[in-house]
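Quick one: Lipoprotein from Sphingomonas glaciei, structure tokens please.
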Amino acid sequence: MKITQNYLLAAYTVLLGALACVGWLFIGQSDDAPGAGMIGFAALLSSFFAAYRIARMATAKRQLQQIGVLQLKP
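--- reply ---
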């Protein structure tokens, strides 16, 4: 169950990054500030990297558990 929670957390992180990107793009268009759009894209990219690390951590835990190296508490 914990692995599914990690995948949901990764998806939620990407969703928050996309919403931040849309918000910063809106601010950039309404205020005529191109730097705000770049901040939005930086937020989106950082959310992709954070989500990848979260999902990779879940996959690594599952692989270690399958080969018997890691014993998770019930």
